[in-house]
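Appendix B, example 12.
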Amino acid sequence: MLALLQEWLIAPFDYGFMRRALVAGLALSLAAPPMGVFLVLRGMSLIGDAMAHAILPGVALGFLVAGFSLPIMSLGGVLSGLLVAVLAGSVSQMTGQREDAAMASFFLISLAAGVMLVSLGGSSVDLTHVLFGSILAVNSTALVLIAAISSLIVVILAGIFRALVVECLDPLFLRGQGVHGGLVHGIFLGLVVLNLTAGFQTLGTLMAVGLMMLPATAARFWSKRLEGLIGVAIGIAMVASSGGLLLSYHLGIPSGPAIILLAGIGYMLSALFGRYHSLLARQRRQAAPLGAPEPH
């Protein structure tokens, strides 16, 4: 039994590329899920998907200029994502259109422009790499960049954590304390862009948002407290990252989709058996006597 566990769980990480992929996945698992939790709390769940597409033109331009140079592509992705966020916010303020509608419009434009740029400057293999990533191809340079961006996100998020929570719950109170809600919102969107830029090398621009949103939405079925939501989301993301890599190694399937599908399985199991609001929880509540307290 121990030999079998050794073969399935530990032996794959004897290879350097597997260790680098694991560290990259765990670094993203620490930074991405808290962002997803706040997006869910703010009713902005689909904004993450929009921003994931918004970074594509910048990544594509970086690819055209310097090939598969992760620093240049990441810089292009950050600038592109921030530009789309600013444009969407400006259109929303000037026209009165909802910000999510403006963001959806710009992300469709960005997606088309990015795919066009990559197609003009590379092959279908290059397009697949940019769109879907390759976590097993993470080298030392990419790993350092991913770890640095993830660490920066965690530090900044810790610094604005209290203001961000208040801005989610009571923006007027935050303004009364002399803190501009728009500034907190802008910093938060910047962190989302940074996170997606860090994730595109491993999961691609189309799936990087999966590690941000799926654990966050699954956590809602297990906790009602913000600290609990963040902790559960990080735990699910870490299990999905490590488990997806192991499945990829043993079954010969693509690593990125395996990670996201494992996170998706975690979401579906949470929706079925979670402690709060799940199918099982609803059945228990319906079967419980009237006046019985809910679980805490």
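The chain has a mean pLDDT of 85. The longest helix spans residues 140-169.
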